[in-house]
């Protein structure tokens, strides 16, 4: 009996041992032991993820900061423009109230303005001044005609002192034109328009008239434009009116029935290409008197402007 019990005990002990071995084998089988290759792969994976995250963060930060800086630069530029505009306005204001443009000599000194024309007073010296019409570009208007409201068949004194209305038709006056062109170089621009609204211009890059002792002798040259050179034939001529005959012809060209108005007549005029802008105003289809610019039209024109500018 005792040996049977011993045998059974031995069997149970063997089974326990077998059980322990199997259990250990199973545990060993399910234990996770990464290989070196797997460790390396994991390391590379983590490193890649870190690099990618860094790139994403850097990119987002870069564009955010850049965008912010661009906006700031734009704002600074806008501010600079506003400051520049204010400075220019202040400069103009100062000039316009007379601190810089005190006693302007002509429209070249006219304060910068967006207006196309303006009336200012120009000063020849401390005692003499005259109101003038300025047109954009620094032009001083010396003659304007457009409707015949003002008679241009006038005497010497009228032409000398000027006549008409600066807001309408006028002649600025020979003594004023002489004074304006007495210093420096000036150009003359003539604008003419016919009854069909055709417009032409002539520019003379050299223009001045002498003082009263020269009978307001005309000096004019260097033509350009699209109206034709109608003025060179009067270069060097004295001014004439119906009561002062200073021309080269036998009778007084200024009082001739074909013209009637003050001008720098030569041997009267060349009927083919003369520009005579001060004749008694007539309406269309008149071959004499009125505003004559032969190279543009054989008959009188509707409008004319003569203006000068310091070069
Ligand atoms: Ca004469």
If you had to describe this structure to a student in words, what would you say it looks like?
The protein has about 300 residues and is of the alpha+beta class. The chain has helices at about 1-30, 35-95, 155-160, 175-180, and strands at about 115-125, 130-135, 140-145, 165, 170, 185-195, 200-210, 220-225, 275, 290-295, 305-310. It is about 35% helix and about 20% strand. It is rod-shaped. The model has no long low-confidence stretch (mean pLDDT about 90). It binds calcium ion (CA). Calcium ion binds near residues 247, 249, 251 and 252. Calcium ion binds near residues 245, 249, 251 and 252.
Question: What distinguishing features does this structure have?
Answer:
binds calcium ion; 4 helices; alpha+beta; two-stranded antiparallel sheet
Oligomer: single chain
Categorize the overall geometry: rod-shaped
Range of strand content? 15-25%
Note the run of SSEs as H and E. HHEEEHEEHEEEEEE
Bound molecules: calcium ion
């Amino acid at each position: 009996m005792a040996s049977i019990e011993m045998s059974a005990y031995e069997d149970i002990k063997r089974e326990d041992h077998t059980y322990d071995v199997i259990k250990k084998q199973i545990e060993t089988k399910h234990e996770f032991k990464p290989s070196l290759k797997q460790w390396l792969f994991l390391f590379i994976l983590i490193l890649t993820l870190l690099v990618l995250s860094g790139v994403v963060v850097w990119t987002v930060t870069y564009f955010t900061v850049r965008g912010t800086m661009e906006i700031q630069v734009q704002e600074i530029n806008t501010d600079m423009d506003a400051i520049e505009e204010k400075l220019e306005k202040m400069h103009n204001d100062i000039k316009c109230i007379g601190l810089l443009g005190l006693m302007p000599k002509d429209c070249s000194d006219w304060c910068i303005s967006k207006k196309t024309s303006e009336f200012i007073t120009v000063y020849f010296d401390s005692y003499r001044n005259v109101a003038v019409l300025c047109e954009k570009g620094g032009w001083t208007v010396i003659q304007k005609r457009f409707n015949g409201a003002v008679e241009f068949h006038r005497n010497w004194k009228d032409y000398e002192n000027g006549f008409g209305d600066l807001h309408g038709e006028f002649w600025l006056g020979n003594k004023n034109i002489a004074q304006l062109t007495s210093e420096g170089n000036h150009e003359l621009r003539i604008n003419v328009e016919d009854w069909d609204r055709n417009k032409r211009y002539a520019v003379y890059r050299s223009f001045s008239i002498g003082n009263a002792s020269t009978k307001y002798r005309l000096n004019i040259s260097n033509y350009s434009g699209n109206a034709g050179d109608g003025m060179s034939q009067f270069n060097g001529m004295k001014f004439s009116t119906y009561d002062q005959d200073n021309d080269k012809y036998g009778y007084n060209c200024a009082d001739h029935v074909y013209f009637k108005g003050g001008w720098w007549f030569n041997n009267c005029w060349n009927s083919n290409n003369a520009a005579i802008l001060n004749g008694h105003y007539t309406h269309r289809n008149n071959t004499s008197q009125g505003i004559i610019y032969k190279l543009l039209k054989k008959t009188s024109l509707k409008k004319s402007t003569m203006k000068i500018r310091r070069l």
